[in-house]
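User: Hi! I'm working on a homework problem where we have to compare a predicted structure to a textbook description. Could you give me the structure for the chain below?
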Amino acid sequence: MSSQNSVWVALGSNLGDSHRILQKAWYDLGEDKEINLVILSRPYVTEPVGMESENLFLNAVGILKTGYAPEQLLGLLQQVEKGFGRVHKTGQNGYQDRLLDLDILYYEDYILNTENLLLPHPHIAERLFVLAPLVEVDPLHCDPCTGETAEAMHQKLLQRMTDGKEAFQEIKHQTWI
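Assistant: Happy to help. Predicted structure tokens:
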């Protein structure tokens, strides 16, 4: 295996058996010879954000180590999503229900802006469904753009939500079945 880079990945699902889908997707990633799974947060049940849906989401964040370059890893994540029936539609406004969504949050401390990949993920600081599980697995992780820890971003978002400056997102902790 080539040199190992730490990567923080967000997992989400709001269709089908989301518990099973997130677990299987995570373990499928670990079957690849260039990936070592480090830790996966517990799942969080959340309201949809940025879309209308009656389906709640199940979200988690995992850390893995890989020898893949960022865009190679993105391709693998998209293959895993496709294996679960995900179809990426270009040009569509807004988000849609999905069986599986895998996003690279951070790849080491890389700052990258290509046609296919933006690192770190641009919406981390405004998504409680990402920050809560990120804080669970790595509260002291520093965002390379802001220098803020995951815990600091989480607390700032909670404060904005408490002050009524952000729409409140309900998060309920779940345990893996």
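For your comparison, note the following. The beta strands are 5-13, 35-40, 44-46, 57-66, 101-107, 112-113, 118-119, 171-173. The chain has a mean pLDDT of 88. Good luck with the assignment!
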